[in-house]
Write a structure and sequence with these properties.
Two copies of one chain form a homodimer. Helix content of chain A is 38%, strand content 19%. By secondary structure, chain A is an alpha+beta fold. Among the domains of chain A are: 114 residues, 2-Layer Sandwich (Alpha-Beta Plaits), CATH 3.30.70.3450; 95 residues, 2-Layer Sandwich (GMP Synthetase, Chain A, domain 3), CATH 3.30.300.330. In chain A, the strands form four sheets. The first copy, chain A, has a seven-stranded antiparallel β-sheet, sandwiched between helices. In chain A, strands 5-6-10-8-9 form a five-stranded antiparallel β-sheet. In chain A, strands 1-2-4-3 form a four-stranded mixed β-sheet, with helices on one face. The interface between A and B is large, with 94 and 94 residues. Chains A, B: InterPro entries: Alkyl-DHAP_Synthase, FAD-bd_oxidored_4_C, FAD-bd_PCMH, FAD-bd_PCMH-like_sf, FAD-bd_PCMH_sub1, FAD-bd_PCMH_sub2, FAD-linked_Oxase-like_C, Oxid_FAD_bind_N. Chains A, B: This is FAD-binding oxidoreductase. Chains A, B: Pfam families: FAD-oxidase_C (PF02913), FAD_binding_4 (PF01565). Chains A, B: Keywords: FAD, Flavoprotein.
Chain lengths: 531, 531
């Protein structure tokens, strides 16, 4: 069963290894364990619903609780403390576009707010109901999760919007295809959610971001149904797909998604290379990306992340041997771990591997084969579970991310890390901060930063620490040419910073679209655009 | 000097070879030559301007005439007959964003309509002034054509919007870079125009369409300046670049363009392969595209276009030898000519070539080396000049284009060709129709159809024939899952068909944006959206 107050299945547990605990204690101090609320305690606080009964809607308190929060750190603190705050008044489970249209009509009659809900994995407050006079109806697309059609010539698959990562891939794999979209939230997040929030997967280097994968579909809006036909490309005016992607539920509910799929590749391999220092590593991956070497993924940890990963990996003796070997080859204390993948035919992969190896060796890279890459691939969706292990050991962990042009990557990364590292110094707290680059482009790169801190003596203190950290980092991003999100979206948490990149005029244009599609402003109010 | 009534420089002439004339006479009948008007005759019809003098604006009749029409066939007929119809009342030549803002303010004071003008190469009626009470101010960006900055780490170049193809490439090449955007209109069309009309270049397979190249910039609108910052990618809401691309001047005037550039490639080669028949050819290029073989261009002519090209090439004896050789290798009467390019390092190109050859051989392709490919590259921008040669010989020629998914390419292509071929049958006229696919994607392909017909006894008759042909083909496209334009844009000529793909709701969303940016509807009225 899925956890009601954390990530993923209850059966999956990822503990912090003993060695890792020592590593963190040295860096931020001994853990501070807070007591979690029980489900019963949390349920006792669910208020009576303000909605009447409806055959498609559950008013059950547990269902309402399970759809009240996403997976941001504030959501985590709310769930762990049992202080959820606001709950949806009901959770609808439509099974068709027609159901969605009925629910929209009904919501209008009830003067209700409507929150579209995919996998509930938002880390930016997309799906949290807000206090207000209007009742809140959360619309879960979970039952619309089927593969409806494949056009095998055009490699277009049609899905219900609620299909999550495993549902998408297992239905495609059975026919010999893959979507190739693997965000870290893949086990729970959904196709409709990826589209609505402009998601990016770990292998976007080959398969593209959702922008390249989303081919068309249908959106149910309060102003009618928006049908988006599939074309390989078009010059016929602004692209309607681009209005839907990133709209975060503000314009309508996605009821059907057509995506560009690929035949399963003959071969896929992940390799790791240790770069001697950060500057060489940075130049190496920029050169790789700009030379268009056809890799399928590329991820570069900075020196602190490399050290942290090796420490948290367990197996301290094996790691010590590895480090000795690397140091002998020139990758010592400042070393940075780089993982890359090749996906394609055997011949294509051999050619790509050869290019990548030659190029990285020119920057001092020490190639260590597929062993660590294989480990990465096995554990690629396990990181979100680690929050549980850290929490039990008395540490809070959060991540944030941005993207910027190459000329600014190093500078922005340093500023973001510094803003987090220093923010709690006044209260004598240290924050352990580390970063990797996981999506590289010719123009620049994403920057994905993880920070570990102690929650303090209470949930209130934990929340206030998080707020300070998040605000410091978000301001740093907005003031230094970073986008407020490369892959998580805007939601509520990033909405105040959006004006820095869209401008007043650009934001007003998005407001104009919101008014067009949703004249009574019922859909996800406060998300994306601060109303 | 640039021609006032046709394509390109007066010094460049492309005549129809004698052999080609016979070929066409056989297919559509002997040519019908119409008498062209002189520049003086045309100038005599320019009416008095309705605008007062302004230091940035030319009211000169010849300047107004030279900015009155694009390069569509109706434009051609208007220019050749000297019946231009409506002229702009003045042509402004701003040199800065500040100038553009002044001109917008002034246009508001004068209650004038404003038409943004790049290279004047529209083939869909984008820049033609319409009859109306408000005076018309055409704003040419020709003087804003400089490379302003290069970020060499991020490979971002900043240009004035009026830089045309040669200005873009020569300024970049001097520093070791290329944009790699080569639409057929490249000699005259501009960066700002490419963005505004969602242009695609011949090597989009490597460099991407303008959607992938346009990184950010600035747009001057009646509601203020829209600044679009550069990010390699972002999940922060809908992408403002996507509002600008395809807006065709309806939302504002682009005053600065930032583009993603590439280092000049070590090597570039174009090869030709003859496929034994259309079905094998089609499967071959679909497989190539879906296998992600890293080519830089791919163009496949159908059997009629292949025959026509070989006939119009001149050198009938050499062609006869080539055809004999090809027939012996299995590419006889139904053969289809395929040209592809590889661009990159020597090693990358060798790997790509190997993959492409092996794959195409599997579909019966006969590889003929680089000779014809080289010819293609030399003549890649000459096709628009051929209209002159054909016209002098008594033939009108026009092209139209669409894109659709692979499962529909063959069917749509046949329907479009049939609609053109049969449209004039009732009046006993034949139309020579042929097609190539020039932009291939995993999902589908563009379809680019050329049609040659006799103009009849008068310009009126020529225009009415064109209208019937264009309408027949456009309806066929709109009714059969094609986009109304893959690379030329909507303008006025395609606007009536846009609803078929955007839907009423989608069109209304674009109208909402137009009202947002241009509340008094001064910008290019009737373009993109029928007002």
């Amino acid at each position: 069963m899925r956890r009601w107050n954390g990530w993923g299945e209850e059966s999956t547990e990822v503990a912090l290894p003993a060695h890792g605990q020592g590593f963190l204690a040295e860096r931020v101090g001994p853990g501070q364990v807070l007591v979690d609320a029980s489900l019963d305690q949390a349920l006792a606080r669910v208020p009576a619903t303000r909605l009447p009964a409806h055959p498609l809607i559950s008013l059950d308190p547990e269902e309402r609780l399970r759809h009240a929060r996403g997976q941001s750190l504030p959501d985590w603190l709310a769930m762990r403390s049992g202080e959820f705050g606001i709950f949806p008044d009901g959770v609808a489970f439509p099974e068709s576009a027609e159901h969605i249209r009925q629910l929209l009509d009904w919501a209008r009659q009830q003067d209700a707010v409507v929150i579209p809900y995919g996998g509930g994995t938002s880390v930016a407050g997309h799906i949290n109901p807000q206090a207000g006079d209007r009742p809140v109806l959360t619309v879960s697309l979970a039952r619309m999760n089927r593969l409806l059609d494949i056009d095998e010539d055009s490699l277009i698959a049609t899905f219900g919007p609620g299909a999550n990562g495993p549902q998408v891939e297992s239905q495609l794999r059975a026919r010999g295809y893959t979507l190739g979209h693997f965000p870290q939230s893949w086990e729970l997040s959904t196709l409709g959610g990826w589209v609505a929030s402009r998601s990016s997967g770990q292998q976007s280097l080959r398969y593209g971001r959702i922008e390249q994968l989303f081919a068309g579909g249908r959106v149910e809006t309060f102003a009618g149904t928006l049908e988006i036909p599939c074309f390989p490309a078009s010059a016929a005016g602004p692209d309607l797909r681009e209005m839907v992607m990133g709209s975060e539920g503000r314009f309508g509910i996605i009821s059907e998604v057509k995506v560009r799929i690929s035949r399963l590749a003959e071969q896929e391999r992940f390799y790791s290379v240790f770069m001697p220092d950060w500057q060489q590593a940075l130049q190496g991956i920029r050169t790789l990306a700009q030379a268009r070497v056809p890799l399928s993924m590329l991820r570069l940890s900075n020196a602190i992340e490399t050290r942290t990963q090796l420490a948290l990996a367990g197996h301290p003796r094996q790691i010590a041997w590895l480090e000795k070997y690397l140091a002998l080859r020139g990758a010592g204390d400042g070393k940075c771990m780089l993982t890359f993948g090749v996906t394609g035919s055997g011949g294509q992969n051999a050619a790509s591997l050869k290019q990548a190896k030659r190029l990285l060796k020119g920057f001092g890279g020490v190639f260590t084969g597929t062993r660590l890459g294989k480990k990465w691939a096995e554990n690629r969706f396990r990181f979100p579970y680690l929050r549980h292990g850290l929490w039990s050991a008395g540490y809070a962990v959060d991540t944030l991310e941005t993207a910027t042009d190459w000329s600014n990557v190093d500078s922005l990364l340093n500023k973001v890390e510094a803003s987090l590292r220093e923010e709690l110094a006044a209260e004598g707290e240290r924050v352990h901060v580390f970063t990797h680059l996981s999506h590289v482009y010719g123009e620049g790169s994403s920057i994905y930063t993880t920070y570990v801190f102690r929650p303090g003596a209470s949930y209130q203190q934990a929340m206030s620490r998080w707020q300070r950290l998040k605000q410091a980092a978000s301001r740093t991003i907005a003031e230094n040419r970073g986008t407020i999100s490369h892959q998580h979206g805007v939601g509520r948490d990033h909405a105040p910073y959006l004006v820095a990149e869209k401008g007043e005029l650009g934001l007003a244009a998005l407001q104009a679209l919101s008014v067009h599609f949703d004249p009574e402003r019922r859909l996800a109010p406060g998300v994306l655009l601060e109303d």
